[in-house]
Specification:
Blueprint: H1 3-13, H2 24-34, H3 40-51, H4 63-100, H5 105-125, H6 127-131, H7 134-145, H8 158-161
Length: 187
């Protein structure tokens, strides 16, 4: 952002009334300090937002108000940059870890043996758990129909597959009918 951009912004905002008379040189210096490091995009977007009334008052903004509005414009962009940087770091860590995870056949066998031992221990502690395993389900299916028994099961009829359930509407109790005296109605 250049000095010309700041002056252009202040000229654009000069249509708003000032709250009090201020020395021009001091005010100009204060705006340059407040807007240091602000992008041209943020300055232009903040100026437009101020003209649209985002500050809640119709006066020329003070240097801190203008800077805060510029920061508010840039907040989503900075948050996106932080997310992108974090995503990039995570991807780099995952790529580095993926390169380190090349297991030999012996290591794979050792891990499989450890898992089988853990499963055996779990089943010994809770026999009901064995009934919930994929192997137990497969064994039950094979006992029913042998190999390929799933091919023998009929498919569900297509007309019932996607039917919506009918809502259950509870029966209402009938209100007893009472006579209304028209003279008691306040109209």
């Amino acid at each position: 952002m250049t000095e010309a951009d700041v002056i252009k912004c202040l000229t654009f905002l000069s249509c708003l009334p000032a709250r009090e008379a201020v020395a021009v040189a001091a005010a100009k210096a204060a705006y340059f300090v407040a807007l240091e490091g602000v992008s041209r995009f943020a300055l232009e977007a903040a100026s437009k937002a101020i003209i649209r009334g985002v500050l809640g008052h119709g006066f020329f903004p003070s240097p801190p108000e203008l800077r805060l509005q510029c920061d508010e414009v840039m907040r989503p962009i900075r948050e996106a940059e932080i997310r992108d940087r974090e995503d990039r770091r995570i991807r780099q860590d995952m790529n580095r870890d993926a390169k380190c995870v090349e297991l030999t056949q012996a290591e794979k066998q050792r891990m499989n043996d450890l898992w089988q031992g853990t499963k055996a221990k779990m089943y010994a502690e809770d026999p009901k758990r064995r009934e919930d395993t994929v192997e137990a389900s497969r064994a039950r299916l094979e006992a029913i129909g042998g190999d390929g028994c799933l091919d023998k099961l009929p498919n569900a009829p297509s007309s019932t597959a996607f039917e919506k359930p009918k809502p259950v509407i509870p029966a209402r109790a009938q209100k007893p009918h009472t006579e209304v005296d028209d003279e008691k109605i306040p109209w």
